[in-house]
Amino acid sequence: MAEYQTPEFHPAFEEYCEAIWELKEDDVDVIQARVAERLHVSRPAVSEMIKRMQAEGFVSLDGNAINLTDDGLRLAEQVVRRHRLAERLLTDILGLSWADAHIEAGKWEHVISAPVEAAINRLLDNPTTCPHGNPIPGSSYAPPELVALSQVPVGGTFTVTRIPEELEFTPGLLDFLEEATVQPGHSGEVTAVSPDGTATVEIDGRHVGIGAFAAERILVAAGSSMRQPQTAASRS
Description:
Strand content: 15-25%
Order of helices and strands: HHHEEHHHEEHHEEEHEH
Oligomer: single chain
CATH superfamily of the domain at 147-222: Ferrous iron transport protein A (FeoA)
Mean pLDDT: 90
Number of strands: 8
Helix content: 40-55%
């Protein structure tokens, strides 16, 4: 896929387009407050950057809602694609943890060139998702039928399929989910649900409590059972 060139290279534009794209992917209202939370910046800083991006033709406003223009969408998809390919490389080939790969990929996404992107894609045999199950833009990803873990009843089985970006930005959560093997391809059973919405699941022979916030966002294939897929790292 051809590299998209911005009129003037600006990493901040990339960060903002990426954040807006990912908020929309997670079905979160894209308003300045949400962008500020995602990027850990002040609301006045977001307001100023959105004005600049609007002037450059990357975003448009519909009341309080922020939308990507065609140029903004192309830039966002390029950055997200490179971030998720980098995460696959860092976990599958280099063996980094989920959390470390997420942080490092945030740096790599700005410096990966089109030839390097193509080379990573070939090395990984054209992956369709990042390690957390989120689709790689421009890949042949076909969305399966999924439900939130919180919708699986007690006694119901499931296979973890996607850990949305919103959870990737929750401090400590990626480490917890990786340690508990609440990862794409791993199957389990809901054994209890507490009044506060915490789901207790048995997965890989362990009982794990998953709070309501995460249970409402982790996407699973309900009633499914599958073997854990091998990664390049697990095959080596």
